[in-house]
Amino acid sequence: MKRNQLHILIFPLLFSTILHAQILNTEVKAKIELSYFEEMVSVTGTAENLDDGIKNLSYTLSVIKKNKQTTNTSNNSQNGEFTLNPNEKKILSTTKINQSTKDEIIILLLIYDDNDVMVGKDRIIVEEKKSDVLNKNETELEITGIVSDDTKTKVGKDFYDIYFSKYNSEAIKGNQIVQIEEQLNIGRTTILKITIDNKLISEFIANPNEEFLSQKAEEAIQITKKYFKDLEKLKNRIEQY
């Protein structure tokens, strides 16, 4: 494929990514609700159908802890499928976390339709004190540097850890969510997929070999960096007009 043809294909892909970010929470609203008891924080993820149609959906509720002293990060995610009747609001998942003064806690709720397209999103940052909870909508808070863990096996988790370590060391801080997803394959194998804002950028059959996983993680990191670089170029080009 010629270079100019490649640019023609990439431009509408990235442009659709920007447009997609503007229509979240219009048909299905994602909402994170918090309550406190001593040093514990109760996290409840909810979804609300904003129109008159029945919707078949899925969700990921992630609790991401960043240690302020060591910069270590952990990610615990809950996933599930559900149906919303017209104008129905439903509790998706509830979890409790221990609030530590050493941690910055990011809570992220993502909702997808039956075509795996993101339709709802909410994000809350929990700081040291209850009064310091930040709850801002999309126009006030830009998501940066989020890598969501949706793996199911030890091999998948090992790949996520390698990829995430490289992501942090490269200081990528992309403003779209990177999702590491693991799906069942023929036999006992699984397929690892890396997507950015629902766009598949890499996939391969999982292999427990550490060298193999490190190589695949490095390849995915290079593709990730190029994706965000091209996205930034597109945004700058649009702002010029």
UniProtKB/TrEMBL annotation:
Any Pfam family hit: CsgE
Keyword Signal carried by entry: yes
Keywords for the protein's UniProt record, in alphabetical order: Signal
Signal peptide from the UniProt entry: 1-21
Superkingdom to which the source organism belongs: Bacteria
InterPro entries hit by this protein: Curli_assembly_CsgC/AgfC, Curli_CsgE
Protein purpose: May be involved in the biogenesis of curli organelles.
Protein name per the record: Curli production assembly/transport component CsgE
